[in-house]
């Protein structure tokens, strides 16, 4: 997995000039989107009448992606996997086709449940492609899903859904144990229990994150977002990862799952003790988080409840594969996007948001 020191120099494109891609295409700066400390910039550029996203990468990320991830993925251009369409010559800057929305933003709008499921299914199809190529995304979250929307006669239509941001993905060796140890992975709002423990990271880690994404897409909740309880616990000196793990244990835990999770840290006496205390306190009146199976929002949706609980099992060995999730009954009524388009609502209900 790539790493980059704070002091490491980067060679990136300037957002104040035009730049020539390896394709010969000339990109002209339009708008700076992000200034990422130690990581570089992300901006919108124009070339030949089209808009593109240009993204700087640190050297370790660029080399790891170019040498170990991209060669596997570009053997087949999957429609739900977003790959660079160009690079800036002699610089560590990759170029992507411009898509109008990220799913974090789009999901907050007035979409039908069926449209949300169609987006999720498209994401899952991209994840199947990654896992079939023995690549773990490691940072699966709604803002790493790009969606292209268009408007005609007041009707909003989704034309493309793509999983993106593979620069820090983990390529697994075919035939290996297919797990990785020793580093925190992904954004804490979508991170798996083993991700918090920096233990046994693999394809099931992505499945947990996708389960949390499904809750967000269908119920509108970022279940691990910081709230007043988090702030109180933090003020009492409790470390952030332990606070979030308490929430994971409360929402998704059962005896077998906890035992499997605790086994990952059995050699760390203090961490094992803290994890056990969190498990034993999960039903305390002081803990406001209730098991997902008891949530009123899913009381009548047995199939959705079933797939989410499978994907968020604390025992990663019992989580389904991406392909098994795709074959679950919850997705059985989701039609393919056909020509790649699905009507989602009126154009006035959605505002454009790139990257």
How would you characterize this protein structure?
The structure is a single chain. This protein has helices at residues 59-73, 103-106, 113-132, 193-197, 203-219, 228-235, 240-252, 255-263, 269-280, 302-311, 322-326; strands spanning 19-20, 26-36, 40-47, 50-56, 86-87, 93-97, 101-102, 135-136, 145-152, 155-163, 170-171, 342-346. The protein is of the alpha+beta class and 355 residues long. The chain folds into two domains: 19-97, Phosphorylase Kinase, domain 1; 101-346, Transferase(Phosphotransferase) domain 1 (Transferase(Phosphotransferase), domain 1). The strands form three sheets. A six-stranded antiparallel β-sheet has the order 1-2-3-4-6-5, with no helix packed on it. A four-stranded antiparallel β-sheet has the order 7-9-10-12. It has a two-stranded antiparallel sheet with strand order 8-11.
Briefly characterize the structure.
Helices cover 33% and strands 18% of the residues.
The CATH architecture category of the largest domain equals Orthogonal Bundle
Briefly note the structural class of the backbone: alpha+beta
Count of helical regions? 11
Largest sheet: 6 strands, antiparallel
- Cα end-to-end separation: 23 Å
Instruction: Report helical residue fraction.
Output: 25-40%
| Overall geometric form | globular
CATH class of the largest domain: Mainly Alpha
Order of helices and strands: EEEEHEEEHHEEEEHHHHHHHHE
- The domain count comes to 2
Counting DSSP E segments of at least 2 residues, the number of strands comes to 12
- Spatial strand arrangement across the major sheet: 1-2-3-4-6-5
What is the name of the CATH topology of the largest domain?
A: Transferase(Phosphotransferase), domain 1
User: How much of the polypeptide forms β-strand, as a percent range?
Assistant: 15-25%
